[in-house]
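We emphasize that the prediction below concerns an isolated chain of 119 residues; any contacts that depend on oligomerization or on bound cofactors are therefore not represented. The input was used exactly as deposited, without trimming of termini.
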Amino acid sequence: MNTDARLNALRYYRHSGRNLQADVEALSANPQGVVVWLPRLVVLMKAADSRHPEMWQNLSDNPSHPDGWYVHLLVGDLSLARRLASEVAPRSWVCFQRGLRGTAPHRLRWQRLLRRPHL
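Result of the prediction step, given as a token string:
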């Protein structure tokens, strides 16, 4: 299994029907967009209104009163992701969809994401 998160992210994009370059450009232009592209971790996310999941995948959308972070893609080292998450503006929710976006939208308390799992 390949441990380079960037290659796994590229694999996701090959099957997602989305365009990586367009998504990175949208997030880079979004004042509340986040792009992390490292061998250990890939994160594409933006500030979001958790009550409007129909807008989450519009990565250029920049809500005026966001209450969550929409994580479009997270691949790689979850412990590193948690450490970096503590550096962004805290919000009430983390919003996401699993897989290739065919499932229902999910919300999870932001503080729960930051907690380490019990071993």
